[in-house]
Design brief:
The protein is α/β, with parallel strands linked by helices and 225 residues long. The protein contains seven helices and five strands. The protein has a single domain, classed as Rossmann fold (3-Layer(aba) Sandwich), CATH 3.40.50.1110. A five-stranded parallel beta sheet has the order 2-1-3-4-5, sandwiched between helices.
Length: 225
């Protein structure tokens, strides 16, 4: 039996950013080990028949770039990423939180359109398991922001007004998943971010996320049998 290849395409919560471990003066940060990060938890549960590929990037958005950074939008990287890791059975997308930053001035509909663009780019490829068709997609709705207290290097609130918007992700994402024929899981109903910074998973959150998504992946591939 060939291993199932799973690409986890996300932001700092896929990368494993440790809440509260960032120093804005030096840009020092800490990352959870692979066994603690949710893709690693998932891989351990799924076992040797699965190959889990982590593609998490701090600050990654859906389809918008920062004025002073390049390559942080999902649309700028998804195509070469898929090619690099092909063939792929399924791509897990967990994005949207960074689009809530004040600097972008986006509503949830605009963010959902960004997710839609990434999905379209994936579904136009031939990087699925047979290298003739696209991989399947599992879209995750991120948990809502716990609070808006996260500060930037200028000591300004990065996510001001974002909490209410983040509570709308599920309603928009589930409709998009149905429209685009993607698998879907609502993380916001089961997982919460750390109180420390309001937008990153702690160890408990990573463990629960890994367990939930592993179960979802098992269900998906049972349906394919």
């Amino acid at each position: 039996m060939n291993k199932k290849s799973i690409l986890c395409f996300g932001d700092s919560n896929t990368w494993g950013f440790i809440p509260g471990a960032f120093d804005p003066d030096t840009f020092y940060m800490e990352r959870y080990s692979k066994t603690i990060r949710w893709p690693g938890v998932m891989e351990n549960i799924l076992g040797s028949d699965y190959n889990v590929i982590e593609e998490g990037l701090n600050g990654r958005t859906t389809n918008v770039e920062y004025p002073d950074l390049i390559g942080r939008s999902g649309t700028s990287y998804i195509s070469p990423c898929l090619y690099s890791h092909s063939p792929l059975d399924i791509v897990i997308i967990q994005l949207g939180i960074n689009d809530l930053k004040v600097i972008f001035d986006r509503d949830v509909r605009m963010i959902t359109d960004g997710i839609s663009e990434i999905i379209d780019m994936i579904q136009m490829t031939t990087f699925g398991p047979d290298m003739q068709s696209p991989p399947q997609i599992l879209l995750l709705s991120p948990p809502a922001l716990v609070h808006e207290g996260y500060l930037d290097v200028n000591n300004e609130l990065i996510f001001k007004g974002g909490k209410e918007k983040s509570m709308q992700f599920h309603d928009h994402y589930v409709k998009l998943a149905n429209k685009k024929n993607c698998h879907y899981f609502d993380l916001s109903s089961a997982v919460k971010y750390s109180q420390i910074d309001g937008l990153h998973l702690d160890e408990k959150g990573h463990k629960k996320t890994g367990e939930l998504i592993a179960s979802k992946i098992q269900d998906i591939f049972r349906l394919d049998e």
